[in-house]
């Protein structure tokens, strides 16, 4: 399931009008079928300036009827009368959408690379771009030599796990793998643990609260290494971009999962400094970043050769923006110690 604007768009600052003052829509009369309801709520959402009006109404109606998408409903089910209970439930969920609640939170679940994950505010909603990041990780992992002939058995660390989408997706595709997932938010930890249980991979993952931006928290991470893969979709929006967020994001999602500081690099540089302490030789770090960041990250790494990290590839997202980084570690594993994580950077050329 994908919902473009709600998942990956930045809204205009002027979009944050007083939606909380809108009254609930009046009860429906004479509209009894799923198709009629989709048409009705699409018109209401469009009138109120709700993004993705038709998609929102289709997902809500389908959900109440027990389907994931409206298109998957049998034609007969789209035209037959709905019960008063179903009509009331659609009215209730549609009223939440009028309050600019994201569809993912309204439905309480969302699909990520074929996995149905529970969603709950304020835990960050995984975006379609992040599915591309996981796909790239899996492609690179398939090319990696495996010691002892045991394939698909990497040890994975996800930093900033949110709902657990990245780690759980990797575990589902790499049956012999194990993972550690960390996040500083209690709500995220609880939701990721619940999703791991739902997907029955909880015995292969350890999910624990850690704020990696505090170097005093790094020591407990070290016994989990060395890891094969470190993967993260960290907060990477700049302060300027934070001021342009859509109401769906500002009012419901955890803004700390998005705010990367003045340049959007505050959390990224801590992950880069932590990586040499945890990655094994030739281990890989995969990051999702802002399109402005590949050159900045390359410059930051070039100025710190002692870390033993090298930016080896940049990949573009489905919109053609440089969005994903593959960084490889070489040399003996570093010991502990303080690393300069200053994010005052100068851009370097983006690798082809």
Automatic annotation (TrEMBL):
Superkingdom of origin: Eukaryota
Biological processes per GO annotation: methylation
Cited InterPro entries: DNA_methylase_N6_adenine_CS, HemK-like, N5-glutamine_MTase, PrmC_N, SAM-dependent_MTases_sf, Small_mtfrase_dom
Gene3D superfamilies linked to this entry: DNA helicase RuvA subunit, C-terminal domain (1.10.8.10), Vaccinia Virus protein VP39 (3.40.50.150)
Annotated region (Disordered), positions in chain: 328-352
Its EC number(s): 2.1.1.297
Domain Release factor glutamine methyltransferase N-terminal: 36-107
Keywords, ordered alphabetically: Methyltransferase, S-adenosyl-L-methionine, Transferase
Oxidoreductase is among the record's keywords: no
Residues of the Methyltransferase small domain: 156-241
Catalytically driven reaction(s): L-glutaminyl-[peptide chain release factor] + S-adenosyl-L-methionine = N(5)-methyl-L-glutaminyl-[peptide chain release factor] + S-adenosyl-L-homocysteine + H(+)
MF annotations from Gene Ontology: methyltransferase activity
Protein name listed in UniProt: peptide chain release factor N(5)-glutamine methyltransferase
